[in-house]
């Protein structure tokens, strides 16, 4: 079989869905390579900062690594702004969706909310509430997100910070994304993202 015959999913046979599943498994083996390519593309995006979006991402991951963070958090720091190009107003949620099947729920929650939490640094310049993140003050992962933003994200715009190349983080990326997706032993207890 080279392709399915159905035109509506409800008409597909078991054989066709097994065939598609095999193709999807093969395609998914290239996920890390696609992520690496997407990260490389950040070299040529949003301007105005002293570092490129790729350098910012690398520096965020380097800061997490230097701080002793685990691989889940380092990889999340590397990918946290991956959605800037395609989802500029909800880039945090896009990045969280990418990592969610492979990291503990706490890390997904932090990445999902980091855009909102970052507003504490600049929202007042636009007449917005810089403390909007406080609606999550009672959430068990609130402080983790505060720390992520303070230590790894908002500080990662320094052109003089010693930052390793993308290749340094590739083995971590491959290890994290080689996990069984949605493994309860990895993800742990999930909280609704908007609680």
Automatic annotation (TrEMBL):
The protein, known as: HD domain-containing protein
Record domain HD: where: 53-118
Source species, domain of life: Bacteria
CDD domains from the UniProt entry: HDc (cd00077)
């Amino acid at each position: 079989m080279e392709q399915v015959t159905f035109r509506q999913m409800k008409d597909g046979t078991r054989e066709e869905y097994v065939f598609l599943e095999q193709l999807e498994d093969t395609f998914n083996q290239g996920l890390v390579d696609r992520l690496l390519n997407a990260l490389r593309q950040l070299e040529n995006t949003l301007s105005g900062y002293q570092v490129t979006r790729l350098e910012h991402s690398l520096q965020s991951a380097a800061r997490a690594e230097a701080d002793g963070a685990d691989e889940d958090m380092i990889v999340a720091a590397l990918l946290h702004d991956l959605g800037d190009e395609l989802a500029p107003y909800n880039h945090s949620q896009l990045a969280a969706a990418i990592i969610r099947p492979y990291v503990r729920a706490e890390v997904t929650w932090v990445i999902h909310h980091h855009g909102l939490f970052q507003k504490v640094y600049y929202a007042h310049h636009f007449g917005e509430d810089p403390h909007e993140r406080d609606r999550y003050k009672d959430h068990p992962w609130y402080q983790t997100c505060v720390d992520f933003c303070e230590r790894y994200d908002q500080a990662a715009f320094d052109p003089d910070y010693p930052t390793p190349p993308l290749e340094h983080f590739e083995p971590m990326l491959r290890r994290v994304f080689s996990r069984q997706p949605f493994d309860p032993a990895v993800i742990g207890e999930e909280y609704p993202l908007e609680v």
